[in-house]
Amino acid sequence: MDMLAATVTATASHPQAADDATLARAAAAGDGHAYECIYRRHAPRLYALLWRLCGGSAARAEDALQETFIQAWRKLPQFRFESALGTWLHRLAVNTALMELRASAAFEALDIGEDGMEVLAGLPASMRCNATGLDLERALETLPPRARAVLVLHDIEGWKHQEIAEELQMAVGSSKAQLHRARGLLRARLGETP
Question: What's the pTM value of the predicted model, to 2 decimals?
Answer without folding.
Answer: 0.65
